[in-house]
Structure formats: C-alpha cells, structure tokens
Amino acid sequence: MAGQIKDTDKFRAQLDLVPEEPGVYLMRDASGSVLYVGKANSLRQRLRNYFTPNPAVDRRIAAMISKIASYDTILCANELEALVLEATLIKQYQPPYNILMRDDKEYPYIRVTLQEAFPRVMKAFRVGDDVEEGARYYGPWLAGDINRALKVLEAVFPLRTCSRDLPRDIGKERPCLNYHIGRCLAPCAGYISQEDYRAIVDEVIQFLDGRTDELIKRFQKDMHQAAEELDYEKAARLRGKWQALARLREEQRVVDQRGGERDALALARNGNEVAICKMEIRDGRVTGVVHVFAQDRGGDDGDYLASFIREQYRVRGQIPREVLVPSLLPDQDLLNELLRQRRGAAVTLQRPQRGAKKALIDMAQHNADKALERRALSRGSDPRAIEATLQYLGELTETLGAPVRIEAYDVSHFGKGDRSGSMVVFVHGRPQRSSYRHFTVKGFEGIDDYQAMREILSRRLARLGDEQFGGRPDLILLDGGRGHVSTSLSLTEDLGLPLAGMVKDDRHRTRGLVLRSGQIVELSPVALSDQELQEESEEDRARRLGLLHLLTSIQDEAHRFASRHNEQRRHKRAKRFQLETIAGVGPSRRKALLTAFGSTKKISEASLEELAGVPGLPRAVAEAVHLHFHGQQPDGKEDQ
What we know:
Structural class: alpha+beta
CATH superfamily of the largest domain: UvrC, RNAse H endonuclease domain
Shape: globular
Low-confidence stretches: 1-6, 633-640
Number of domains: 5
Number of strands: 20
CATH architecture of the largest domain: 2-Layer Sandwich
Mean pLDDT: 82
Largest sheet: 8 strands, mixed
C-alpha cells in the first residue's frame, strides 16, 4: 500500500540516528501501545530489516508492521543484558505480536511459599508473580496425582496450612485443630523455631524435586534406630512416613536407568496454536510434565522454544543441569549463558540425535501432541476455526483484518445509586483477565443504561493512550442492541474504532450482532426461519455458529464479571451497614467510626480505649461496639 511505503520511507530516514549497539526496541501503534518487543546485537541493522519495501519476516511480524507508528530503543551493555531486558519488558507489556506463553489451566500446581518465614504447601491453578520473590511451583499435575501427593505431604511433613501472618502473629491465638491431631507443629504459637521448621521445608523441596531416595533411606535409618532405643511410638511414625513416600515413589515412571537431572522439551503445532511440553526427569524418574500454549502466528519452532525457556526457567530452583531440545534455537549460546547465570552453575542445552536422550524427546513429543489434541477437543471444535471466526467478525464490523484485541462492555445496577460497568478483554479470541476493568457510574442520578454506557466508554477512551490501562482495541462490543450502538457511536467514530452490539433474545441468550448501521446479523438458529436454515450452505453455517459461540463467550464473560463486582459491592455495603445493627450506632456514628479507622475490619480489631477515643462516640456506645466484635465485657468477662 502507498501509505505503508511512505511510512517505511519516513522510518528509514530516521535509522541513521539509531546506534549500532546492542539493545531492545519497542514497536508502538498510533496510541502509543506496545505492539512488539525485540532485542538485537545491532539495533540499527535490526530495525533496518523491518523498514524495507519487502521485509523478510514471518506473517506474524508482517501483520504488525503496518500498525507501527513509532518505536523506542534502549541501549544495553551487551546482547545478554538485552536478552534479559527483552524478557522483562515482554512480561510487563504483554505485547500482542510477541510469542506469549499460557499455562495449561486444566491442571493445578503444587506451590511452596518459600518467600515466607514459615512456608506453606498448597494447590495453585497457575504460576503466580510470587515466583520472582522465591515461591516455587511444581507441576502441573493431574487432579488425582496432585491430591495423592498433597495427602502424602500432609501426612509426612506437618507444615502449617493457615493464612496467619508469621512471625508477626506468633502467640496471638491458640493453635488450631491441626496441631492437636499431629498435622502441624504450631509455629503460630512459637512451638517450633524458624530454623527447625525450615529444615522440614527443605525435605519437602527434596521430595518435590524427585530426590526421595535419600529421604526414604533416612526415614528407614531413623526408624531402626528408634526401635533399637525402644521408642516404638517414634518408630511407628517414621514407618508410616517411609511407607507413604515409598508408595508414591513406586508410581513414578522410570525412564532413565542412569538417573540424572534433566528436562526434555518438545513442541506440537496445529496451525492455530503451539503446545510445548516440558517433561521433568529427576533421578531417572518422570516427576512432572508441564504444558504451555501460544498462538501459532508463524515463525520457526526454535522461536517458540526460546521464548518458553526464557519464561519458564526464571529462578534457580526451576533450572536443571541439562535441557534437551528437539530443534536448533536462535541465540542458543546466549540462552545457555542466561540459564547458567540464573542457576549459578553449569547448564547444558543439548539437541540429541539418537539414543536414550532422543527417546526422552520422543516421549515429550507424544505428550505435546496429546495435550494439543485434548485442548482442541475440550473446546468442542477445531481451534483453527477461531482465526476464521475472527476474520468473519472483522468483515462484518469493518475492522482492518481479524480483530486482535476486543473489548466488551456491560452495564449493571442493583438499586438506586448503585450503577456500575464492566470491561472484559479478549485477545486472539481468548479472555485476557488481567486486563479486565470495573467502572462505577458517577456522572448522573437515576437509572439510564444508555447514558451509563456512554459514561463508561468515554472514561475508557479518554485513557486510550495509557499503556497501564491496556492497548488500543481493534473492536469494541457493547452488551446491548440498536439503542446502545447508536448512542455510543459518536464516541468511537472520530477515533476510528469499530463498534458493534451484542443483542440477546427474550430468554437472555445471545442472538446476534448489531452493526453500526443498525442492521442486526442474526446468528441464533432460533432467530432464523426454516427456509433460511435450509438454504444456508455448510460454510455459512460454520461461520455463523462459530461467531455465535464467540459472541456468547464474550457476552457471558462480561455479564459474569459485572455480576461479581455487584456481589462484592453488596458484601462491602453489608459489612459497612452491619455497624448500624449495634445499639447506639446510627448513620452519623457509623461514618465517624469508618472515618477514624478506615474499615469495618480495623474497627473490629480496635481496643475499647481506641473506640472510646472516636469524636462524638459515647463510652457506652464504644463498649457496645467492642462487645459486638469481641463477645466480652470491658472487664474481660465472657458475655453470658
């Protein structure tokens, strides 16, 4: 296109100002949102490759180039530093044209909160940001496997499961039931030191790392020693621990008789998604299998594997001595050095061609193939249809190509003066929950859904260039019919943002798409006549049902998110007005208490003297408030 060539010429003229040094570059669109983050040994040479009449790039990057309005560069001391910064910025901005890995949410993890003074072991459904603070994640596990593992851990290692803030809360409350039945050593009461508690945690880590032989031998030795000393109760406890570990150990499949500590990676693709499998082998046994997914937007297998390695191996405890890969990686020596620095010891990236290590790659490949197949089946259709559905949605709404980022808005209210709105975000047809937002309607009184939608949309569009709020949407969808579309259209037209509505039938089910012209594209079979259904081709039927499925998912998610916000507000209001159930507390004294303490929780934790010090609160009322939350008379006697 002529416009694209003109922009390319403009960028080429600026490239002489870009230094030929290592660094990171950020491609931005017209609103300033980050489209892509990359690194280069020579920034000028790499950027020059983009801004040529026919750039030699894959289709993912080619689709991005036409949207570039500006770019930023950050100089680094060397290429390794650029690699680390690139990974950090990708994690921060989540650019739509970078390869972004997503955990398999179908399977949970075991999380060990090593960042805490007294760590806990629990189930988690995704790897959280606390991994950067020291938390360690193992898995994902099959549901039955993780339950068996947690049951063994609970029986063998008596660690706390409560959420008390330790050591701050040590001694504030009595030990819970777990202490009395032998499943916790009560660090909350100071019955075990931090050092002794941490020694038990180290044993848990040893077990989860797959190094259980030493633990089993130690328990056997201690058991025999206790029996020799005639301490049969201790010997029986140790025998139970030894047997529990041994049973779980027997269930782990032996894949390498030589033992060793390595991960085997493999990759599967189906044209729409990429699945990467990481099979963890410790002491020759498979101790875990991890699956992550990314949108397949072209490029080499090595690009996806390199992105996986940068993201997955973040901290020392996650990195084994050897990582087996199925194909050549870009910047493999650089990645090897990155892993070595993060682990603090030697790491080998190896591509085996034959033998036992190649067999491990083949086993991981089988797992990757099956994971991708299972993911496709769980969605009820071929995942490649998602891209076709987005393309069809783009044609109907006059979006430039298939919309990458879709924002959908819903208005809800649960009483006079309680009006709110929700924004949900779908990227490449998948929900991006980290970008969801809530709005409280403040600009007018009463209930007017059209005016509320305009207020919400106006506030969002005013922050269109705010990267912290989210990237520029390719399409905006409103939960509503012609009225919502017509009253909000003027807000988006000047910005060049396509707008459409999602209309429901009389049973509150998604029915069709309302275009900016007011035309309704009927998608539900219920809304079509028998003749229209009979004359419909298979291709048109597939397109219609694919779009109906997508819009239903978006509309249901917007409604769910709005309902959750309403429930939270109801709960918050109920807690605030709970104070007015106390004798002597009315609206003015409730406000005085909240002004003084900030929240109902802090009021409940306040002492009698602190309550009595609130301006305008008589001591008798302060005593009533204290009694309400503590169930005690001021002199400490229990309330009868």
